[in-house]
Amino acid sequence: MLTVLGWLWQSETCLAKYRIDHANRWAETIDRHLVMPHRFVVLTDKPTERWGEFHPLITPIPIWSDWRGMTTPTWPAKKPHCWVRLKAFSAEAGDIIGDRFVSIDLDSLVLGQLDPLFDRPPDFVIYKHPSMRHSNPYQGSMWMMTAGARRQVWDDFRGEESAAEASAAGFVGSDQAWICHKLGAGEAIWDTQDGVYSWAAHIRADPAHYADKPPSDARIIFFQGSEKAWHGFEKRPQFNWVAEAY
């Protein structure tokens, strides 16, 4: 059984705000495009009295507090500081999440069948960073793992000391920088050849090709940054297909 893992917690400084209805839409669209046995878990700080607002597909679980409040001067406060996600790499994460899980950000637009992405044997697979100008080899929008398979990401983390170490090594971001630093090269990846696209790096950057429709082979598009699939596209009418697909 594959656990599809989502994250929903509030950060006061982050410009991007996520709601329960975003998690519900996320689960609905993934469920329509995934045949293999699966379940949905959302780690959240929403109070239990609001858990009834989650879609029946979703099992909400209280998000742990480990490193949740940590920020770092090497990453702007208005951007997400996602250090709390690192505990998913711990050996005990399997007891909370499941033995095999895929973490997928809520800011995704699912357009095609997902089984080919997740029916893969490696114990760890991660999204390749979409920008050729970026120092990070990987991007944290999606990763799949057998619980504990890369436990060094959690076991070796020492807070601000580790954040500074990852930054000094040339990696950018919060948890993503540390993940890249600890994993090193050679991990199994997803990229555009698998139908995994970035809104900013691929779609918005190439309106000549994608103004009227998405890539024909797109399975999932991630909206890293401030623009999300649920936003109106009045200023980008050539991309109205995004809002319609969402």
List its salient traits.
246 residues, 10 strands, Spore Coat Polysaccharide Biosynthesis Protein SpsA, Chain A, alpha/beta, 24% helix, 7-stranded mixed sheet, single chain, 9 helices, globular, 3-stranded mixed sheet
Summarize, please:
This protein is of the alpha/beta class and 246 residues long.
Please characterize this protein's 3D structure.
It is a single chain. The chain is of the alpha/beta class. The chain has a single domain, classed as Spore Coat Polysaccharide Biosynthesis Protein SpsA, Chain A, CATH 3.90.550. The chain contains nine helices and ten strands. The chain has helices at about 20-30, 95, 115-120, 150-155, 160-170, 175-185, 200-205, 205-210, 240-245; strands at about 1-10, 40-45, 60, 100-105, 110, 125-130, 140-145, 190, 195-200, 220. The strands form two sheets. It has a seven-stranded mixed sheet, sandwiched between helices. The protein has a three-stranded mixed sheet with strand order 5-10-9. Helix 1 (about 20-30) links the parallel strand 1 and strand 2. Helix 5 (about 160-170) crosses helix 6 (about 175-185). The longest helix is centred in the N-terminal third of the chain and has 13 residues, at about 20-30. The two termini are about 25 Å apart. The mean pLDDT is about 95.
